[in-house]
Amino acid sequence: MTGADPGLFGPNSVTWQTHGDPMMWIAGVRALYLQALHPRAVRGVLQNSDFRRDAWGRLLRTANFVGTTTYGTTEAAERAGARVRKIHSMLSATDPDTGERYRVDEPGLLLWVHCAEIDSYLHVLRRSGFRLTDAEADRYIDEHRQSARLVGLDPAAVPADRAELAEYFEKVRPDLAAGPEAREVDDFLLRPPTHPLLIPAREVLWRRVAQLAYASLPPYAHELYGRPAPAPATVTRQLRLTGLLLRRVPARLRWQLPPKHILRAMARLGPHARPAPYKLGR
Q: What single Pfam family name could you report for this chain, choosing any that match (predicted)?
């Protein structure tokens, strides 16, 4: 539709074409595992939210934020960012060892959360068979300096390509640890509370999702969590098989699930806005 607002990224972006992929859900769980390894960041979550009883809600709110900022109008994306910044500005956390009180919107903490998410999205998508060239992967990281700005970061201080992202993780590794809060997140992700009648489904379905997300973590994360790292080739095969199965589900059927960001974007911009991997590299 001529003149319609394409949003922050638009159909020509790598972000637009990748974020409709179903493997984003597994990538999101990987991001939670990774984020939990920063003690100050994970305390900010556990001390200010009902994570234990509303982790599903938190995961869905994060997915809604990503969907809004990717496929929504510019106004909707800016409004979502302003809402996140306002909430974060009112929250703080306490270091139990030192008694220090600190804000959860410290730039260093926001940067960790951002980089853990972007790394997880990119890593799981590529490793599961979503074809992205190195140049497209760099474009993806650079595009997400926009989403970093929305949560309150200076885009100039955010990694802009794979090399800068790798350098960032190398720099932050001494700050990482699997403390009590990380163990709590780990335990929850493997055994989330559910209705007794759904426990068998949790064991058969969800545990496999969580285990695959965990298995895809970098070696240092496995070392910190204290569990042996699975063979990389085995994890890659599992990710590719899972991606193959999930991508066989018709996109239109997947996109019918609320909140239907992609369908609304296509209604706003026209059918040409339909995200598809083959559109990359044009």
A: MPAB_Lcp_cat
